[in-house]
Specification:
The structure holds 2 protein chains of 2 kinds. By secondary structure, chain A is an alpha/beta fold. Chain A has helices spanning 23-26, 46-49, 86-94, 106-113, 124-136, 166-174, 178-184, 186-194, and strands at residues 8-16, 71-74, 98-101, 118-121, 141-145, 150-153, 158-161. Chain A contains 8 helices and 7 strands. In chain A, strands 4-3-2-1-5-6-7 form a 7-stranded mixed beta sheet. The radius of gyration of chain A is 18 Å and the shape is globular. In chain B, the strands form 5 sheets. Chain B has a 5-stranded parallel beta sheet with strand order 5-4-3-6-7, with helices on both faces. The longest helix of chain B has 17 residues, at 77-93. Classes of the chains: A alpha/beta, B alpha/beta.
């Protein structure tokens, strides 16, 4: 199934300057019982966002109307822990299209890309600049250009380039899906099977 | 230049290499459970295709299952639906399925090895990050997301860039009361939860080769907790002896042929790793965690690090973590109150773990104010524990053996640690709320868990040995 195409995005952002945000925080295990991909956005960061009475916890950034936008900016080692793709579905379902951090856990990064979410890895210094700029002005905008592999703090026009696997870049720019590709090379896969020694 | 074990296994499974992109990697064994698979099967249905190589996949429900009264329908409606969906999907696609009540049902990473489904040189994936467990056999095994589960079902392949290679060598002899779990908690405490991100790790050295298969599985299981794509250990006689005779192990001539191949699966002496780390077994003491990620661990006789010793940029997260745990920096771990003890999971739910715990508590009594859950990793582990009479010894000491599943490791079933209470747990993650909303987890070995179960406090297991 095609994923969302991504070219450029200019948006304000939601800052979450916490290190090691794990996938159990992004989507707690008790919400993994669904058999479809829908509805996970409602439970994104559930236990940081709502108390036991299901009331919004004041002070948590997603409950603070000061901040808005479709870019989530997290601390170092974002998405560590479980392989649950539900974390990517929750982030996507909530409306985020980009996650920025100075370091991503491997499986999360892959899961994000497979769902049309762009993980943008920046330097620790640039991440700090974003957090500071948003602290001063919550409406601070970021511009992410996938073609140029560049992220820009719009207010100061400071930019940094980011890495992305060229194949994954092509997939995101065009909304391609890995499974379509794999199905198209089944003959190669069958040939591999036929020629195996061990 | 020589090849590493990882290179040998990975390279022999590359179907095609995309220019400037990922490798298309053939998967020998695909393990499936109920939580991360329904959306993948739904994807196949939407495309109108069937599983490409159903015989290469095996499924069992584990995450959601209750650990008592498994003969009754699951009470939680959503859990029941998910478990039923797995039975339905696997039947539709002709995939082997060990459902609730089947003697082979259990935690998928305990079931694979004990049935001989896990073999050296294989590529093994599962929609679960602890798939790295199977690396103990010299396989390349790692967790994948649901999109990738769908890829494997559709094509028996995934697409991933080749990770870098790291070797972690631990030489020497482990001290009394120090177990495989302590080795891996020690390493993660040294390098942090992101310390191996981007790498596939080979564990080596005399302290590693001296471990049983169960111990090796415990070490490889937690590779993901240091961010590694996976971790593995070169197969040797210990490995081959473990596999021989198991249900899905090769037999007769096929065994001899495989064995000859398996013996080639080791890192060449002139192979080069992208990174090498070395530790001494003698420096490792029983470990315990004090924070909210597995890297926040320390020797059990130590105190929680002072805030000033933490890198300045990380102090905010550190203070938040200790606040969640209700711990003060600088205080000793020994003597902290324990309300729950959990023995089980893909990390420490194998027969050897049950034996270690049982031998430790034999002839003693459980502390009155501690709730203890002992959950075998699989139906086979449960059966063997009973055959060995472990259940009786546990009963006499005030414990009970429950039924197999992931249980309180991630608390998707009813085995939840209540808010604010402390659990010494033989599992792999101490994240906020991992064992139930508001729960506080201290990761440790089966022996350290047993010591806490007897005293109701964090206790050095060596005090009893």
């Amino acid at each position: 199934m095609p994923i969302d195409k991504f070219t450029t995005l200019r948006s304000s952002c939601i800052p979450m300057p916490i290190e090691n945000v794990d996938t159990d925080q992004i989507i707690p295990a008790r919400f993994l019982k669904a058999t479809s991909k829908e509805g996970f956005g409602d439970n994104l960061f559930r236990d940081w966002r709502y108390n036991k009475q299901n009331q919004p916890i004041q002070g948590f950034v997603l409950n603070d109307p000061t901040y808005s936008g479709s870019i989530l900016v997290g601390g170092k080692n974002f998405g560590s822990g479980s392989s649950r793709e539900h974390a990517a579905w929750a982030i996507h379902g909530y409306g985020f299209k980009v996650v920025v951090s100075s370091f991503f856990a491997d499986i999360f990064k892959n899961n994000a890309l497979n769902n049309g979410i762009l993980p943008v890895q920046v330097s620790a210094a640039f991440l700090e600049k974003i957090f500071k700029a948003v602290q001063v002005d919550p409406k601070t905008e970021l511009e992410v250009n996938l073609e140029k592999q560049q992220i820009t703090l719009v207010s100061s026009n400071e930019s940094e380039s980011f890495e992305i696997n060229p194949y994954k870049k092509e997939c995101l720019l065009n909304g391609y899906d890995d499974i379509d590709y794999l199905l198209s090379i089944r003959d190669k896969i069958e040939a591999f099977e036929a020629n195996r020694v061990n | 230049m020589g090849k590493t074990l990882f290179d040998k296994v990975w390279d022999s499974h590359v179907v095609t290499q995309i220019e400037g992109g990922p490798s298309v990697v053939y998967i020998d064994r695909h393990l499936i459970h109920e939580v991360t698979s329904p959306q993948a099967f739904a994807g196949l249905d939407e495309r109108g295709i069937k599983a490409f190589r159903p015989e290469n996949s095996v499924a069992t429900p584990d995450h959601n299952v209750p650990t008592v009264n498994q003969h009754l329908p699951i009470k939680d409606e959503l859990s029941r639906m998910q478990v039923n969906k797995l039975a339905e999907n696997t039947a539709k696609h002709g995939i082997r399925h060990y459902g609730l009540g089947h003697p082979n049902q259990g935690v998928v990473h305990v079931v694979g090895p004990e049935l001989g489904l896990t073999q050296p040189g294989m590529t093994i994936v599962c929609g679960d990050s602890h798939t790295s467990t199977h690396g103990a056999f010299g396989a390349v095994a790692f967790g994948i997301g649901t999109s990738e589960v769908e890829m494997v079902l559709a094509s028996q392949c995934i697409m991933q860039p080749k990770p870098k290679r790291m070797r972690i060598t631990i030489d020497g002899t482990l001290g009394k009361g120090v177990e495989a779990k302590d080795i891996i908690l020690y390493i993660i405490a040294k390098i942090s939860t992101g310390g191996a991100t981007g790498y596939f790790v080979e564990f080596a050295g005399s302290a590693i080769t001296g471990l049983t298969m169960e111990g090796r599985m415990t070490v490889c299981n937690m590779s993901i907790e240091m961010g590694a794509r996976g971790g593995h250990i070169a197969p040797d006689e210990v490995t081959f002896n473990y596999i021989k005779g198991r249900e899905f192990a090769p037999k007769g001539d096929a065994w001899d042929k495989k064995l000859a191949y398996w013996k080639t699966l080791k890192t060449d002496s002139d192979a080069v790793f992208d990174k090498e780390l070395k530790y001494r077994a003698a420096d490792i003491e029983p470990m315990i965690t004090y924070g909210t990620n597995p890297g926040m661990g320390t020797g059990i006789t130590q105190s929680i690090p002072a805030v000033e010793t933490i890198e300045e940029s990380a102090r905010g997260s550190y203070i938040k973590s200790l606040a969640y745990m209700g711990f003060e920096a600088g205080t000793p771990m020994i003597g902290k109150k324990v309300d729950y003890v959990f023995l089980g999971s893909c990390t420490n739910g194998r027969i050897e773990d049950l034996r270690a715990f049982t031998n430790f508590v034999k002839g003693k009594k459980k502390a009155d104010d501690v709730v203890v859950w002992i959950v075998p990793g699989s139906g086979q582990v449960e059966k063997q524990a009973k055959q060995e009479g472990l259940d009786k010894i546990l009963e006499e000491a005030g414990f009970e053996l429950r039924q197999p599943g992931c249980s309180s490791c991630l608390a998707m079933n009813d085995d939840k640690v209540p808010e604010g209470l402390y659990a010494v747990s033989t599992t792999n993650r101490n994240f906020e709320g991992r064992q139930g909303p508001g729960s506080r987890t201290l990761l440790a070995s089966p022996l350290t868990a047993a010591a806490a179960a007897l005293t109701g406090k964090v206790t050095d297991p060596r005090d009893f040995l």
